[in-house]
Amino acid sequence: EQGSSHLIDTIFHQGRWWLVGTWLEPNATGDRVPETLVLLDTLRHQEIEGKPYRFVLNSEIPRAVLRGETRTGSVVATYQVLDDSRGPTDSRPH
After folding, report:
1. Is 41 helix (H, G, I), strand (E, B) or coil?
2. Which residue of 24, 26, 70, 86 has the fewest C-beta atoms within 10 A of its own C-beta?
3. Is the distance from CB of 76 to CB of 21 less than 8 angstroms?
């Protein structure tokens, strides 16, 4: 709905703040995993205090961007959960 405010989750990942556009379904442990991320640095925003949220966007963001569609002025990423979970590279049995 245009012109209305919505709360959007944020995460701190690789030294930067990201909006979580979409979440994957909870896995077997019940943990939610972000599916699409939008870099907050590329959006006009301000950090605030004394509210139950940390950031306020100064302009609207299209829902398509939150679903992962890259548009001019936005950086969208897909969160790769398994990238950092590779085991050792030696040949020892696990």
Report:
1. helix
2. 86
3. yes
Could you give the CA distance from residue 43 to residue 63 in angstroms, rounded to a whole number? 14
| 57 in Cβ contact with 7 (< 8 Å) | no
- Other CB atoms closer than 10 Å to residue 21's CB: what's the count? 24
Kindly state the DSSP code that residue 26 receives in the 8-state scheme: P
What are the start-end ranges of the H helices in the chain? 63-66
Q: How far apart are CA 17 and CA 29, in angstroms?
A: 25
Tens digit of each residue's pLDDT (9 = 90 or more) over 1-27: 556 788 999 999 889 999 999 998 777
Instruction: State pTM to two decimals.
Output: 0.72
Question: Residue 6 in contact with residue 21, Cβ under 8 Å?
Answer: no
